Amino acid sequence: MENKNINAKNSIVICDYFDTGLLKNGEPVMIESIASIDEKLKNEFTSWVNEARELLKPFEFTIQMLELYRPRLADIKYHNRGGCELATRIKFIVGGDFKVYYSCIDISVLLELVKNR
Fold first, then answer.
1. Alpha-carbon distance 73 to 50, whole Å?
2. Mapping DSSP to helix (H, G, I), strand (E, B) and coil, where does residue 22 land?
3. Fewer CB within 10 Å: C terminus or N terminus of the chain?
4. For residue 12, what are the β-bridge partners?
C-alpha cells in the first residue's frame, strides 16, 4: 500500500478508527459501496471493524482503569495484520481505479493518549 495523501481523489482508506472502517475519496462509506465486493469479503471486513471496537475499549479508560481492564496488545497486532490483508484484497478488487491505503492501530499513540488524560 502507498502512504501519501490520503485525501486524494480516487482513494480508499481502510482504518478501524472510522465508524465504517472505510473512507472513499475522504468520505466515510460502507464496504458495500465498493463495486465487486463479494459477500465473504464484506462479512470479513465487517467482522474486522467490529473486532476493533472491542479491542479499543480499554483505551476509553484512564490509565488507572487500564490496570483493571488490560488491553490485548498481541490481539491488536494480529488485528493490524488482518487489516493489511483485507486492504490488499480490496486493492486487488479495485485495481488501478483507486489508491488503497491502510492505517493500522498505533498502540504507542493510544497508550500515550490514555497516559495524558
1. 17
2. strand
3. C
4. 24, 100
pLDDT band at 3 (very low <50, low <70, confident <90, very high): very low
Spatial CA neighbour of 20 closest among 1, 42, 2, 36: 42
Q: In whole angstroms, give the CA distance from residue 83 to residue 88.
A: 9
Q: What are phi and psi of 4, to 5 degrees?
A: -115, -135
Q: What is the CA radius of gyration of the chain?
A: 15
Query: pTM of the prediction?
Result: 0.76
Whether 38 contacts 44, CB under 8 Å: no
Residue 29 dihedral angles phi and psi, to the nearest 5°: -140, 165
Chain-centre distance of CA 78, in angstroms? 12
